[in-house]
Design a protein that fits this description.
By secondary structure, the chain is an alpha/beta fold. Helices cover 39% and strands 21% of the residues. It contains 6 helices and 7 strands; from the N terminus they run βαβαβαβββααβα. It has a 5-stranded parallel beta sheet, with helices on both faces. β1, α1 and β2 form a beta-alpha-beta unit. The longest helix is centred in the last third of the chain and has 21 residues.
C-alpha cells in the first residue's frame, strides 16, 4: 500500500459557513478519502495572530508553540492547499501574516551568494506541489486584463517560487456574489477533481 503523503490545508475566511469553508471542507474530505495525512488550519477560527513581533525576526528566534507547530507542519508537508477570497487583489491580512510568520527564512527558504555576488533564493520546503483556490466577484479575465493577475504573481512567483515549489495549480471561482447553488455545486466538483489530481501528482 502506498505511504500516505502529508498535506497542509490553510483556510482564510472570517465567516463560518462561507463558500470558502465549503471549498476547504471538500479538499480535506477528498484528501482523507484517499487516506492522506492532513494538517488543517482555519486561521480565523483559530484566531491566528498575523503580526510578526521583533523577537521573531532572528533566524534562531525561539518561537511560541503555536507558530512552531505551523512551521513544522508546513515544513513536513508534501503538498499545500491554500483557500481564500480575493480582497483588493491580495490575500486577507491574516493570511499574509501567516506567510510572514510561518514561512520563515532558514526554514522555508534561504539566500546564498550567486555567481555575481547577488543574493540567490533557495527554497527549503519539502512540498513540490501546491493548489491555490480563490474566490472573487470580479471576473478573472478582467482582473488579468486590468491588473496583470496580482494573486497569481504573489502565490506562484513570490511565495511558492521563493520556497522551491514549482508545480502551482490555481482555481478561481467568480463571481461568487451572484452564484446560485447549482453553480457552487459545480465548482465544488472542480475542487474534488483538482484535489485528487494533486494527490496523483505525488509519487
Amino acid at each position: 500500500m502506498p505511504i500516505p503523503m502529508k498535506y497542509s490545508v490553510i483556510l482564510a475566511h472570517p465567516t463560518p459557513g462561507s463558500f470558502n469553508h465549503a471549498i476547504a471542507e471538500t479538499v480535506v474530505r477528498c484528501l482523507r478519502a484517499r487516506e492522506q495525512e492532513v494538517f488543517f488550519h482555519d486561521l480565523y477560527a483559530e484566531n491566528f495572530d498575523p503580526v510578526m513581533p521583533a523577537r521573531e525576526i532572528a533566524r534562531d528566534a525561539v518561537l511560541d508553540p503555536v507558530l512552531e507547530r505551523h512551521c513544522d507542519e508546513i515544513g513536513s508537508a508534501d503538498g499545500i492547499v491554500i483557500v481564500h477570497p480575493n480582497w483588493w487583489s491580495q490575500p486577507p491580512a491574516i493570511l499574509k501574516g501567516w506567510v510572514d510568520r510561518a514561512l520563515r527564512a532558514g526554514r522555508a527558504y534561504t539566500f546564498v551568494a550567486g555567481e555575481n555576488g547577488e543574493g540567490k533564493a533557495v527554497g527549503l520546503l519539502k512540498a513540490k506541489t501546491a493548489l491555490v483556490i480563490t474566490t472573487a466577484n470580479t471576473p478573472q479575465e478582467k482582473e488579468v486584463a486590468l491588473l496583470g493577475d496580482p494573486l497569481g504573481l504573489f502565490w506562484e512567483k513570490v511565495v511558492c517560487g521563493l520556497c522551491g515549489i514549482r508545480d502551482v495549480r490555481r482555481l478561481v471561482f467568480t463571481p461568487v456574489i451572484i452564484s446560485q447553488p447549482e453553480q457552487r455545486a459545480a465548482w465544488l466538483r472542480q475542487v474534488e477533481t483538482a484535489t485528487f489530481s494533486l494527490i496523483d501528482r505525488l509519487p
